[in-house]
Amino acid sequence: MAPTLVSAENNRLQLAKLSYRSIVDPVNFSQIYSLLSTQASKNELEAYVRNYGGGGAGYKVAMSDAEFNTIYQNTQIQFLPGAKMASITNTFNNTSYYFTVAQAKKLIELVSLESNRLQLAKLSYRMITDRGNFSQLYDLFSTQASKDELAAYVNAYVD
Description:
Elements: H1 9-20, H2 39-51, H3 65-76, H4 81-93, H5 101-108, H6 114-125, H7 144-156
Helix pairs in contact: 1-2, 4-6, 6-7
């Protein structure tokens, strides 16, 4: 854990909550979680962030690197292609998970069929925290048709 000026866990948690409304790069807010020692505090901060702005209308915060690495490793060890696809589909369908484009891309790269990659890219879009970078996923596709279909999906998407 990084050194902090405030040593009491509860005080760090309260300051983290207060700071959230002033954050200009909410995608990187997950770095704050490393300042908290207990899982209970991390869970409380996560719940606060999810509900910020009323009813979950606040910013989405991507999962921590540690949490993502666990999911990635559990998916990577799946031997059968169908099992990998199912695992990633379940991950993107979990409404508790939010991803950066880099995280989503890394998961999608575990699948080799372009049609499956396209399906996963579409599925991931609603859970992406940095949608301005979503075009980086187009590198996953070898055909222009897949790129065009994904672009059409993104352009038509309504939250």
